[in-house]
Amino acid sequence: QVHVAESGGGSVQSGGSLRLSCATSGFTYSTYFMGWFRLAPGKEREGVAAIDRDGNTMYADSVKGRFTISQDLDKFTWYLQMNSLKPDDTAMYYCAYDPLSYNAVVVGTALDILSRVDYWGQGTQVTVSS
Prior knowledge:
The chain is mainly beta. The chain has helices at 104-107, 110-114, and strands at 3-7, 10-13, 18-25, 33-39, 46-52, 57-59, 67-72, 77-82, 91-98, 124-129.
């Protein structure tokens, strides 16, 4: 069973930066994609970034150029570097993976999958004040 734990959230002012981490245990998949999505009150769940094992990445237009997803395959840990944060980025952030849709980043469906895939972490809260 895979355990997922998100961390790194916090409260920052507009323009600030945060680095989220997604630590896993029991992750044995050789093909997969991992990504981050966010939930905010009154808004739909939004997939924001995804990465596959080959390092291909995909970003939502709302974060492109500001967020960077990366991975440490030795540690099975994934990261989301968030720069130039805006109040609209305020949300609970979760990481999620899908070992079945391992080519989803390449074909461009990863963010859609992140908007509905099951998830197991507790999330980490990001609050950006103006």
